[in-house]
Amino acid sequence: xxxxxxxxxxxxxxxxxxxxxxxxxxxxxxxxxxxxxxxxxxxxxxxxxxxxxxxxxxxxxxxxxxxxxxxxxxxxxxxxxxxxxxxxxxxxxxxxxxxxxxxxxxxxxxxxxxxxxxxxxxxxxxxxxxxxxxxxxxxxxxxxxxxxxxxxxxxxxxxxxxxxxxxxxxxxxxxxxxxxxxxxxxxxxxxxxxxxxxxxxxxxxxxxxxxxxxxxxxxxxxxxxxxxxxxxxxxxxxxxxxxxxxxxxxxxxxxxxxxxxxxxxxxxxxxxxxxxxxxxxxxxxxxxxxxxxxxxxxxxxxxxxxxxxxxxxxxxxxxxxxxxxxxxxxxxxxxxxxxxxxxxxxxxxxxxxxxxxxxxxxxxxxxxxxxxxxxxxxxxxxxxxxxxxxxxxxxxxxxxxxxxxxxxxxxxxxxxxxxxxxxxxxxxxxxxxxxxxxxxxxxxxxxxxxxxxxxxxxxxxxxxxxxxxxxxxxxxxxxxxxxx
Length: 484
Prior knowledge:
One of its GO terms (molecular function) is ATP binding. This is Asparagine synthase. InterPro entries: Asn_synthase, Asn_Synthetase, GATase_2_dom, Ntn_hydrolases_N, Rossmann-like_a/b/a_fold. This protein folds into 2 domains: 165 residues, Glutamine Phosphoribosylpyrophosphate, subunit 1, domain 1 (4-Layer Sandwich), CATH 3.60.20.10; 295 residues, HUPs (Rossmann fold), CATH 3.40.50.620. The chain is an alpha+beta fold. Helices cover 39% and strands 20% of the residues. It is built from 18 helices and 20 strands.
């Protein structure tokens, strides 16, 4: 949940001042302190959130900045920076294959620099190369104005000053393997998710859960209740939201400390510029759902919560999208793998940006390796299950927790977050009323190879362009391919 920067250069006159300037651009609500680490040929910087402790390094040890959650069994109690530093000294570049968790980090020592990002890309990292420097940062906004070519540091890659970019991993390959019964699979899914929540809650009390009343967030809440008695749940939506009453059902069932907020179109429009600024995207579906996430994070922050669990990843692992239902199994597996690989610029980005906007440590237990590796090996027929009358998405996940949650929640059909929260129609109608057909036709093509899909997306793009004017940033934008 930290934010990091790195300035790798021996030509820049005052790299320390530049690093501090970059940190200031990505300092959010509740960021308590910044630290600068200097090494020959590099300056590293880190913004720490209020719940984190800053780290000092000895001159003869590698300096490390890290935005990471590390779950290595032999490293309990150590900070991510210390864990990475120790493993880097022992393993060198192979450190990336000995880390269990999500991470983006930079190491510097003796004019050598090493940077890496986790295989799924749960932790963000971007970079820009100029004539005299390589500059990295957790968010695009830190790099605006430094040059034209801002790029995404690709997930599953590391960078070293002597080898450049090297691919070391990719998300789990989706392919059925093994022989296991439905009952065993469901039990395994349940226990792995509980274990994942327990790992994420290590040394943390009273986790918050972003609760929509859908199966993914409800499962995370139920798993959290198995780990700790004291949980808080947070739900938002407009007055006609279908999520709010379902979330109340789950909250009552689990006995959580429940918080709820109802917002209006005027409130959505008021926060929209800040949502887009923090999100660093104008993708229509992503912005829609990010508004609800922003409201959730603001409410959690005001309630004093700095640590939350989210249900993101359940759709990608267990076949939650309706458009998958009529595909052949092999194609479904390929599509789920693609969705997981692209998540770093879509749903995972939303969770990261909207929680960090309020200095909240947002975790996604579905995306821990013990869950992703098992889920990727399950057959499609247990993810999208045909009961003879209909195809049920995420069936094995529902079976896994059917005794932990009310029946109306377990078998509730999936809705997009923004649909359940109730914001979609209101935003679409507002854009339709405020942008003419002529304006849309004139402005929809923003680059030869990039076209906006609707008036609503044009509304978001206009705001985005004020914050992020460089054309190269378009290449960092994830595009939601479907609405299912």
